[in-house]
Amino acid sequence: MPRSRNNCRVTCPLCGKRKARRACPALGHDICAVCCGTKRLTEIRCPSGCVYLASAREHPPATAVKQHQHDVALLVRFLRDLSERQSRLFLLVCAFLTRYEPPELHQLLDIDIAEAAEALAATFETAARGVIYEHRPTSAAASRLGDALAGVLAEAGQDSGTNLDRDAAVVMRRIQESVSDAAPPAGQNARAFVDLLARTIRKAGDSPSGVESGSSRLIIP
Q1: Per the confidence metrics, is the pTM higher than 0.85?
Q2: How many helices and strands, by DSSP H and E, does the chain display?
């Protein structure tokens, strides 16, 4: 365990408050137990071999179980009344969002997802009426994300061999609504929806049970 010159435990570099007591294989240095537990698989990309990750999955605390139940209930609500095709598109988009990496020094925020989804929904709604017009988000971050999402949906359309305009419009509106529904009442978390996806959608093989969506799966109880 690394120690400072006065033989005291090193302070956690993530919170800057608590003592660093756990060796984090993802970050390559020690962090505190609280940051390990709260930032696991959200801000920290934990490798599958991490002993703390394995322990948490085998013996989840009551708060983690409650959080998981709440997350799954939200996702079920997001998927309400969608057709099978629309549900698959919704999960495809969610899986993509968990892998999306913004340009360096930028972080994916819920507002970027909402703005990109709103613009894409408007574009697909217009196309469904036979008019080709591309609606664009106002922010550069949302615009980049929108372009990436458009590519994912275009590829899905090629794979299905049918026009996806109407279904894509419905799905993107639902993504926009889901971002709003996932936000906490006080609005203190700018990544509530992003964190929700990080907790519930993982790469295939990370869990023995789930609903596969592309290279990812939705984790269910």
Answers
A1: no
A2: 8, 5
